[in-house]
């Protein structure tokens, strides 16, 4: 089942050409996408769709992001080997695999138990070992491992959570899609303890970043 054929590799080369044409320039991002067997992150019935530049349903009504979106966010992170990166929204683990492939140390938080369990078992099976996967609420970040070189949020956030800003190193980068129905891709760079620089990019559409289920 976990095989990666010449056919899949060929389709991946075409996918990389497509996202390069759409404007992705970072060679290390493109190489990571070329190397990772995206079809293995999707339920078997959808394997034929794995190398179209489209998002796709995974478990628990969530989606694996469109490859172009993954590339766009990753390019904004300016990943360097050994960077300590926090991801909010583990989902299928594909984005985490891209970061690991680029040499980063990845911590990733997921609030859906089913996905958390599935991805925790799956990623090491195909050779991608995160530093830690956490079942929890991404709005809180991960205080005990902060500060991070960068933080990536892969769900649509209604606002920028303060906790995430606090957990950035100086010169650290937060890439987060902000908005309710559609989201503006937003890059925030921490210039000093108190100063943050904000850059906005195009519109994207993500599944919503949800609040923790209230405990009664
Ligand atoms: N990075 C994923 C994309 C998954 S979609 C991939 O490559 O496949 C976004 C994910 O964010 C979903 O799995 C969703 O359950 C999760 N999510 C939503 N709100 C969250 C929150 N508050 N904390 C952590 N994860 C959250």
Cα-to-Cα separation, first versus last residue: 43 Å
Can you tell me the CATH superfamily? Vaccinia Virus protein VP39
Task: Output the CATH topology.
Answer: Rossmann fold
Largest sheet: 7 strands, mixed
Rg (C-alpha, Å): 16 Å
Q: In what range is the share of β-strand residues?
A: 15-25%
The percent of residues in helical segments reads 25-40%
Explain the overall architecture.
The protein is of the alpha/beta class and 216 residues long. The chain has one domain (6-204): Vaccinia Virus protein VP39 (Rossmann fold, 3-Layer(aba) Sandwich). The chain has helices at 6-21, 27-35, 67-77, 94-101, 113-125, 162-166, and strands spanning 56-57, 63-64, 84-88, 105-110, 132-135, 148-153, 168-178, 183-190, 196-204. The strands form 2 sheets. The protein has a 7-stranded mixed sheet. Strands 1-2 form a two-stranded antiparallel ribbon. Strand 8 (183-190) and strand 9 form a beta hairpin. Helix 1 packs antiparallel against helix 2 (27-35). The longest helix is centred in the N-terminal third of the chain and has 16 residues, at 6-21. The N and C termini lie far apart (43 Å). The model has no long low-confidence stretch (mean pLDDT 94). The chain binds S-adenosyl-L-homocysteine (SAH). S-adenosyl-L-homocysteine binds at residues 62-65, 88-89, 91-92, 94-95, 109-112, 115, 137-139, 154-155, 207, 209-210.
């Amino acid at each position: 089942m976990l095989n990666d054929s010449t056919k899949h590799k060929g389709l991946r080369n075409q996918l990389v050409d497509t996202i390069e044409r759409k404007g992705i320039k970072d060679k290390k991002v493109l190489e990571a996408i070329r190397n990772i067997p995206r079809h293995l992150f999707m339920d078997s019935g959808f394997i034929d769709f794995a190398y179209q530049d489209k998002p796709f349903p995974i478990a628990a009504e969530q989606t694996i992001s469109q490859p172009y979106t993954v590339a766009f966010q990753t390019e904004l992170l300016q990943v360097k080997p050994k960077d300590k990166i926090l991801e909010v929204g583990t989902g299928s683990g594909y984005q985490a695999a891209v970061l690991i492939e680029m040499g980063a140390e990845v911590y990733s938080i997921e609030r859906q138990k089913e996905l958390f369990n599935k991805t925790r078992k799956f990623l090491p099976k195909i050779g991608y070992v995160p530093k830690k996967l956490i079942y929890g609420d991404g709005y809180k970040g991960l205080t005990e491992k902060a500060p991070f070189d960068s933080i990536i949020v892969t769900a649509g956030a209604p606002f920028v959570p303060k906790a995430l800003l606090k957990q950035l190193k100086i010169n650290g980068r937060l890439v987060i899609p902000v908005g309710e129905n559609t989201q503006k891709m937003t890059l925030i760079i921490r210039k000093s303890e108190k100063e943050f620089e904000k850059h906005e990019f195009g519109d994207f559409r993500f599944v919503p970043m949800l609040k923790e289920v209230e405990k009664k």
